[in-house]
Design a protein that fits this description.
alpha/beta, Rossmann fold, 17 helices, about 525 residues, six-stranded mixed β-sheet, 18 strands, single chain
């Protein structure tokens, strides 16, 4: 159960919610919705205890599992396997890791002491029902789309999308009575998303989920909290039902309100005209005019009190024409990459010409993000080479926003690209970032706002080659459509990874590189299904 009393949350001086009170019992499944920047992630963090409120209290009864939106991973940390990470959800991870280390040492050390040590660990693991738990953990990983041959790979050897699946599996494996999930369907293919929606639909505890996934909000949710930052009052709309029902109710309420407003305006105009016609006549008529003015003023007050949606900054992103460069933009020859004993891909070759749109596709773990990291120079190849044309300027959009300086504000980072103050503010505004948000630390931004900032910085950089890794993640539908349209009309060279079939359709790539095979084909609509499945 979750109990919230008098909660006030502010981020960067902006009021998110004010004196918010609600309670959720078992079976409550809440979709926390709103535009990018409304404060959904901030509110969820406060409920999870990962951030502090300005005022009020949050009480959570029972075990809680929390999946944050940011899953930055420390590759320098002690390497553990994906399965061991999931087992940590029930405090079996350390024991499992010890078994893995001793098992590996048995390959070179066959001493009785080492064998006895492994035997003791196995017995303890069995005593704690570890083998049954391990089977359950594997089932969760498989349900979320992680292939069985990836279970024992170190987290350092799997992709960002796979690590997020592992983290989600760990949280579900923990058997929590309260689940707080921020964009849980990011990076999931169709089968994994279908499995997760079924799991959440039958989940008996309390669920609060931040998502722009309309299918999730309809299939697995029975209550909507709509947070609209910008109205100034920090209100949250509470609706019983799924998102489609909420949308219909809101549309009907707006229709009725528009009808009331229209009738009120007609009456206001009638009273004003009538008062004006009497105002300069007899004394008695002047008194009537004054009475009519009072009635008209009351109607004006009613119109002023009509609820208005918060002011939002519409995304109008326009990509500037790219700077000139050579005809052959990039040539990759015999690229090979692996982590430890695991080979990600090998002998990948391609030549990309100026203005080409090149889509990189493949299942999770096929090496799509790794390839973009190689091309951007953020990772080194094991074999092979990458050669760029003269005057190529590379802009890299990282899936986990590693290129952002979370301590600096959006405005500071945009000015650092060489833009004047007014140009920097205009660029940020074109991506829906304006007002207080441009001066607060970038680390306090929502996931959608970080995506917008990263794209705005690409525009500020005036690059002619863009490497885009999931550029539409975390965006609300309106922003996603606007940015997809802008990128589709850009004239530069683009290498893109995406799970968003609608974005791929708008982008209309010229060719597709399939990983890990390294095969290249001309793009057709048949690849859209593969993108959704990947």
């Amino acid at each position: 159960m979750i109990s919230v009393a008098g909660l006030t949350v502010e981020v960067g001086g902006k009021l998110i919610v004010d004196e918010l009170t609600f309670s959720l019992g078992a079976g409550s499944k809440v979709g926390l919705v709103g535009r990018n920047g409304a404060g959904k992630t901030s509110l969820l963090k406060v409920i999870a205890g990962a951030a502090k409120a300005s005022k009020g209290s949050v009480t959570v009864q029972g075990n809680m599992g929390y999946l944050g939106q940011d899953t930055l991973f420390d590759r320098a940390a002690t390497p553990i396997s994906a399965l061991t990470r999931v087992l940590a959800g029930r405090e079996l991870g350390e024991l499992s890791a010890s078994m893995e280390r001793v098992r590996a040492s048995l390959e070179t050390d066959h001493s009785e002491k080492n064998i006895n040590r492994y035997t003791r660990l196995m017995e303890e693991f069995e005593h704690r029902d570890g083998y049954r738990a391990e089977a359950e953990a594997k089932a969760l990983l498989m349900g979320l789309g992680l292939k069985e041959d990836r279970f024992h790979l170190a987290l350092t050897e799997i992709s960002g999308g796979e690590r997020r699946r592992v983290e989600l599996a760990r949280i579900l494996f923990g058997g929590s009575e309260v689940l707080l999930l921020d964009e849980p369907t990011n990076h999931l293919d169709i089968d994994a998303k279908t499995w997760l929606l079924g799991y959440l639909k039958s989940y008996p505890g309390v669920l609060v989920v931040v998502s722009h996934d309309l299918e999730l909000l309809d299939e697995s949710i029975n209550r909507i909290f709509h947070l609209e930052r910008g109205s100034g009052d920090g209100d949250l709309i509470d609706f019983r039902g799924n998102y489609s029902s909420y949308q219909r109710a809101i549309a009907e309420r707006r229709r009725q309100q528009a009808q009331i407003t229209r009738r009120s305006m007609e009456e206001l105009n009638r009273l004003t005209r009538l008062a004006d016609s009497m105002r300069h006549q007899t004394a008695s008529r002047a008194r009537v005019a004054k009475s009519l003015d009072s009635r008209a003023e009351r109607i004006r007050d009613t119109l002023d009190e009509t609820p208005k949606r918060g002011q939002t900054v519409k995304v109008t992103a326009k990509m500037p024409d790219p700077l000139p460069c050579g005809r052959i933009v990039v040539e990759a020859d015999g690229l090979c990459k692996g982590y430890g004993t695991h080979t990600v891909f090998e002998d990948v070759e391609f030549v990309i010409e100026r203005g080409e749109r090149f889509l990189v596709a493949g299942l999770n773990g096929a090496g799509k993000t790794t390839l973009l990291q190689l091309l951007s120079g953020r990772a080194a190849t094991d074999l092979g080479s990458v050669v760029y044309s003269d005057r190529v300027s590379i802009g890299y959009f990282a899936q986990e926003h590693e290129e952002l300086d979370f301590a600096a504000s959006p405005l500071e980072q945009t000015i650092a690209k060489g833009l004047a103050l007014t140009d920097a503010m205009a660029t940020l505004a074109a991506f829906g970032l304006a007002g207080e948000v441009v001066r607060q630390p970038s680390g306090t931004l929502s996931g959608g706002e970080k995506t917008k900032l990263a794209l705005a910085l690409l525009v500020a950089g005036r690059h002619n080659l863009l490497l885009l890794d999931e550029p539409t993640n975390n965006l609300d539908p309106e922003s996603r459509n606007a940015i997809s349209k802008s990128l589709s009309q850009w004239k530069g060279t683009m290498i893109c990874v995406t799970h968003d079939a609608n974005f791929a359709r708008m982008l209309n790539p010229d060719r597709v590189l399939m990983l890990p095979e390294g095969t290249i084909d001309y793009f057709s609509d048949e690849y859209l299904e593969l993108i959704e499945l990947a």
